[in-house]
Amino acid sequence: MADVKISGLPASSTPLAGTEVLPIVQGGQTRQVSVTNLTAGKAVPVSSIQYGTQGVTSQVKPLQFLGLATLFTFDIDGTQTYGTYMIEVQVAAQQVDVLPGRAVEARKYIFALNRYASSITASAINSEADSSYSSSSGNYAMSMTPSINIVSGTKAEFKVTLASTGAIPFTSASCAAQANVMGIFGVTVS
To answer: Average model confidence (pLDDT) for the chain?
Structure first.
């Protein structure tokens, strides 16, 4: 096989085990390196590993509520790799009463779910400043407070509490909210 071009070699099976070797030129000499050691000791920029909306078992359509609502349940079950999942959720809420000066809140929340062994932990929830929007009058205003509830060793719920904060309070169902999981980005370890 010494005279076979690389393009003539059969394709490898995936995923790679990490023990496969590649030829490299280092210091003017041809050497070998395993796939695992290809970037060992070197910082390698990675924009993200995209998981789409993997792990989302329930998704809310537009709903009306004032108070606490579970918007998403993340189920990171045993078929998925242990690790850290960075989750980005966008929530938009608007007062639905047809009154002048209605209140609007929109936020993008980012948090991490860490799954190791048989447990999940959650990081603090951060709001992305440049993705936040609030509009209100002196009479009508609202606040949005997110929270994470760990349900089990594989499940976590993302919840939001909407509250009326203006001089004239809303009625119990005068807010419409839409929530979307923008993406789940994972850094996994096996």
So the answer is: 75
Domains of the chain (ranges, CATH numbers): 56-188 (2.60.40)
**What share of the chain has pLDDT > 90, as a percent?**
3
DSSP string, the chain: -TT--GGGSPPPPSS--S--EEEEEETTEEEEEETTTTTTTS-------B-TTTTEEEE--SEE-SEEEEEEEEE--TTSPSEEEEEEEEEEEEE-S--TT--EEEEEEEEEEEEETTEEEE---EE-GGG-EEE--SS--EEEEEEEEE-SSSEEEEEEEEEE-SSS---TT-EEEEEEEEEEEEEE--
Nearest partner of 150 among 112, 180, 185, 181, judged by Cα:
112
Confidence bin at 73 (pLDDT 50/70/90) = confident
DSSP bridge pairs for 50? 185
Q: pTM of this prediction?
A: 0.62
- Name the nearest CA neighbour of 127 among 144, 146, 110: 110
Q: Tokens for 46?
A: 């990675």
The model's pLDDT over 132-153, given as tens digits with 9 standing for 90+, comes to 778 877 778 888 889 999 988 8
What are the C-alpha distances in Å from 143 to residues 106, 159, 163, 170? 10, 14, 5, 12
